[in-house]
């Protein structure tokens, strides 16, 4: 089975490089069939431009907001 969406939450700015690696790995592995990516957590709130740079479909500040984005 393939996921329709993947949510990644990062709390500390120090962990952003690992999230970047994960997102890049997903894009490499799945290409055009990559699940929709949603990023959240304090680290992405501090760096909102990074969400678009990584090619994610959106970001959310909490679970309810994330679920609304996913639809």
Explain this structure to me?
Helix content is 48%, strand content 18%. The model has no long low-confidence stretch (mean pLDDT 90). The chain contains 4 helices and 3 strands. It has a 3-stranded parallel β-sheet. With 71 residues, the protein is α/β, with parallel strands linked by helices.
- Tell me about the biggest sheet? 3 strands, parallel
Q: Quick one: overall form?
A: globular
Q: How large a portion of the residues is in β-strands, by DSSP E?
A: 15-25%
Q: Please tell me the overall pLDDT.
A: 90
Q: N-to-C terminal Cα separation, in Å?
A: 19 Å
Uncertain runs are none
Number of strands: 3
Q: In terms of quaternary structure, what is this?
A: single chain
Global Rg: 11 Å
Helix content: 40-55%
Q: TL;DR?
A:
By secondary structure, the chain is an alpha/beta fold. The protein has helices at residues 16-30, 42-46, 48-53, 63-70; strands at residues 5-9, 36-40, 58-60. The model has no long low-confidence stretch (mean pLDDT 90).
Keywords:
single chain; 71 residues; alpha/beta; three-stranded parallel β-sheet; 4 helices; 3 strands; 18% strand; globular
What does the secondary structure layout of this molecule look like, with pairings?
Blueprint (H helix, E strand, L loop, with lengths): L4 E5 L6 H15 L5 E5 L1 H5 L1 H6 L4 E3 L2 H8 L1
Parallel strand pairs: 1-2, 2-3
